[in-house]
UniProtKB/TrEMBL annotation:
The lineage of its organism: Eukaryota, Metazoa, Ecdysozoa, Arthropoda, Hexapoda. InterPro entries: Interferon-induced_GILT. This is Gamma-interferon-inducible lysosomal thiol reductase. Pfam families: GILT. The keyword Signal applies. GO terms for cellular component: extracellular region. It comes from Pyrocoelia pectoralis. GO terms for molecular function: oxidoreductase activity, acting on a sulfur group of donors, disulfide as acceptor.
Length: 220
C-alpha cells in the first residue's frame, strides 16, 4: 500500500516537472503597439486585428500599449503643452487610456479596456467621453471618476510625456501609426501586413500556438 502511494506521488511529481518544463520552453512574442486613439487606422487595427488575435494567442504575447502617436509636446515656463494630430479630444482619450493602463498590470484586462474604448469611439464618434469611460472603467476595476481626474489633471500630462519619450526613442523613427514592434524590433516588411496580425504573430512564434494550426499564412 505504501509502495503504491509512493509510486503515485512520484508519478505526480514527474508530471508536474514535465508541465513546468514545457511552460518554461513556451515561446513569448513581445508586441508593442504605438497608436493614437482617434486615428481610424489605429481603431481598425485594434478592433479588427489586435483584439481578435489576442483572444486566440494572448498566452503567447507580452503586450505593450502606448497611446501617443503623432502628438507633439513642448515645455514652457507654464509646463507641458501637448498637441495631438486629431485635436484636443484625441489628447483626452490618449490620457484616458494611459491613465487606465497605468492602474492595471494584467494585459488581458488592458487590451479589453482599450478595445472597449476604441470600439465605443468607432461606433459613435460623437459619444460623450465620460459615458464611454464609465462604460469601460469597470473592466479594470477603477472608477471612471478616478480615470477622468487623472486624464484631466497633471498625472495625465505626465503619462503623455512618458509615452512621448518612449515613442520618440523608437528607431527608425516612427513615421505613422499604428506602428507595431515585434520583440522591440521594427520591420518595414511586417508593417505591410498589419491587416494580418494573427498571421504575423503565428509566423514569429513558429506556429506554436494551437490557433496557428492550418492558418492560411502568406507572410514571407
Amino acid at each position: 500500500m505504501i509502495r503504491n502511494c509512493l509510486t503515485i506521488i512520484a508519478f505526480i511529481f514527474v508530471a508536474i516537472n514535465i508541465k513546468c518544463a514545457y511552460e518554461a520552453k513556451k515561446q513569448t512574442l513581445k508586441v508593442s503597439l504605438y497608436y493614437e486613439t482617434l486615428c481610424p487606422f489605429c481603431m481598425a487595427f485594434i478592433n479588427e486585428q489586435l483584439y481578435p488575435g489576442y483572444q486566440k494567442i494572448g498566452d503567447y504575447l507580452d503586450l505593450e500599449l502606448i497611446p501617443y502617436g503623432n502628438a507633439r509636446r513642448n515645455k514652457s515656463n507654464d509646463g507641458w503643452m501637448i498637441e495631438c494630430q486629431h485635436g484636443p479630444k484625441e489628447c483626452l482619450y490618449n490620457k484616458i487610456e494611459a491613465c487606465g493602463l497605468a492602474r492595471n498590470e494584467d494585459q488581458n484586462v488592458s487590451i479589453s479596456f482599450v478595445y472597449c474604448i476604441q470600439k465605443a469611439i468607432q461606433m459613435d464618434p460623437s459619444a460623450n467621453y465620460k459615458l464611454i469611460t464609465k462604460k469601460c472603467s469597470g473592466i479594470i476595476g477603477v472608477s471612471s471618476t478616478e480615470i477622468i481626474k487623472c486624464a484631466e489633471g497633471e498625472e495625465g500630462v505626465e503619462l503623455m510625456v512618458k509615452n512621448g519619450v518612449k515613442t520618440d526613442a523608437v528607431q527608425p523613427e516612427i513615421q505613422g501609426v499604428p506602428t507595431v514592434l515585434y520583440n522591440d524590433y521594427y520591420n518595414d516588411t511586417l508593417e505591410e501586413y498589419n491587416d494580418n496580425f494573427l498571421g504575423i504573430a503565428c509566423k514569429l512564434l513558429n506556429d506554436e500556438p494551437n490557433a496557428c494550426t492550418n492558418l492560411e499564412n502568406e507572410i514571407l
